[in-house]
Design a protein that fits this description.
By secondary structure, the protein is α+β, with helices and mostly antiparallel strands. The protein has one domain. It has five helices and four strands, in the order βααβαααββ. The strands form two sheets. The protein has a two-stranded antiparallel ribbon with strand order 1-3. The protein starts with a strand and ends with a strand.
């Protein structure tokens, strides 16, 4: 996962569930790979895959309804989810793969 500098803050449990705890920005990811002695040969953005996954989950799980039934705690989680959705939609959170060689 990659994030921009202005990606939203999310509760720790939600960040762990969505694989955001080790997220880096694109430049940091490339630099980390290159520091190990590898050369980045190709970088692919998987934005469309991430959006498709979001749509698939949204079709199967009524998380708005579930979180809405949880009162204040659910409202806090829903606000974080909505902020994440916006960040995915506008590209501040994404998924990339990197091919590197020695």
């Amino acid at each position: 996962m990659v994030v921009s500098e202005d990606a939203p803050e999310v509760p720790d449990r939600l960040a762990r569930a969505l694989c955001l705890t080790g997220a880096r920005n694109r430049a940091e990811l490339t630099a980390a790979v290159e520091r190990t002695g590898f050369t980045v040969e190709e970088r692919r953005d998987h934005r469309e895959d991430l959006l498709a996954m979001h749509d698939c989950v949204g079709e199967r799980v009524d998380y708005r309804g579930l979180l809405g039934a949880m009162g204040e705690r659910g409202e806090t989680a829903l606000a974080a989810v909505e902020a994440l959705e916006t960040a995915v939609d506008d590209g501040r959170i994404g998924y990339v793969s990197v091919v590197a060689g020695a």
